[in-house]
Amino acid sequence: MIHAPKKVTAVYSCLREEILSGKWAFGVKLPKESEIATRFDCSLGTVSKALGLLVHEGFVERRARAGTTVTYGAEVPDESQFDSVAFIYPSEQHEGIWRTVKGFQDAARETGRRVMMLTTGLDYQKEAEYIARLSEFDVRGAVVYPIIPTPQAQVQFSSLLVESKFPVVLTEVNLPGLGCPSVVVDGFHAGYTMAKHMISRGAKRIGFFSNFAWAPFMRDRYQGYRWALEEAGMSEPTGGVYLDSAMNPNFKDPLAEPTAMAQRFFERAGRLDAVVCADDFLALGCMAAAQKRGLSVPKDLLVSGIDDYSSLAASCGVPLTTYRIPFEEMGRRSFALLNEILNSGSPASEEHQVRGEIVIRLSA
Hints:
Elements: H1 6-21, H2 33-40, H3 44-56, E1 60-63, E2 67-70, E3 84-89, H4 95-111, E4 114-119, H5 124-133, E5 139-144, H6 151-163, E6 168-171, E7 182-185, H7 187-200, E8 206-210, H8 216-231, E9 241-243, H9 256-269, E10 274-277, H10 280-292, E11 302-304, E12 322-324, H11 327-344, E13 351-354, E14 357-359
Parallel strand pairs: 3-4, 3-5, 5-6, 6-7, 7-13, 8-9, 8-10, 10-11
Antiparallel strand pairs: 1-2, 12-14
Helix pairs in contact: 1-3, 2-3, 4-11, 5-6, 7-8, 9-10
């Protein structure tokens, strides 16, 4: 069993006893996680882990943006319904992740499977530990939305998947050659679509801006951009492609790193008509850096992203043209793929791609 820290155990035990005593009856929503954290003088991460244990034992059900509901005390289902699957993911603070989680949970609920939700934050080692030790729980398989910060971490993660005693489905990331199925966005289509749009707007010097550039799904977006330019008889502008291998996500201040990177990008890129950014956070960082240089979007520079995060709309002074990724569908397909493996022994194919669509707003 995964040994939780003492504080996690204390919060879990107290809430469990309150549910057993009837203080929190079947169907009742528990207080918000922030309120529970205040009550026990602990972090939100501690509360999340404690609730994760309660979910695994069937005491509560967690739904993104809907809270935690007590499920203990309902009629006991047939024994076959106790087969559980896990979803391991970094944080619900990231919109794309919680939307994927929602799709997974909805699909699991429709089939009657129980789910175990485990959040890792930005701790890659915790992610590895969860995968290595999930067999100690009553878990038949897992979907993983992984954090792989470096190529070295990818090697370690790949070894872990090869040694796994239960099926694992990856979402958002594909690791070809391991026989591990995945559900990913069609990155080539995303990059191609956004570059084609910039060309249709009359842009001649179209740059590309990306971090985490060694990852296959980011490379696909860049290749789509290149194909669109070549198809139009255009070439990459000198200095206008920025492919940074690093990625240091910060859920509390997600625009800090993209803005700093964009400032370095503009220093070497020279004049550009448009920039295709590999995700929405990079696009907002690009617009912030452009503003600091006295450039107006879209008058002086067209900017586009990939993701379509509604949570960024309020912080975006100029509404962002972007490529909408169907994250909920990715979550649903990830569960369906895992369920297919559990029922038939193997998936129909190793990689499953989903396509999104362009959403045109003021920035481009």
